[in-house]
Amino acid sequence: xxxxxxxxxxxxxxxxxxxxxxxxxxxxxxxxxxxxxxxxxxxxxxxxxxxx
Length: 52
Fold this sequence. Notes:
Helix content: 40-55%
Number of helices: 2
Distance between the termini: 37 Å
């Protein structure tokens, strides 16, 4: 992905984030952290508890 590339490299390649190349839809690190937290909560529930 081009997002971490320096601005000069992007400009030289003709890439304008959000214009000629889309920006990321999600922050993968944040989404991963939320998913892991949710899984921990599910794993911590007693087996006989009803799902929410």
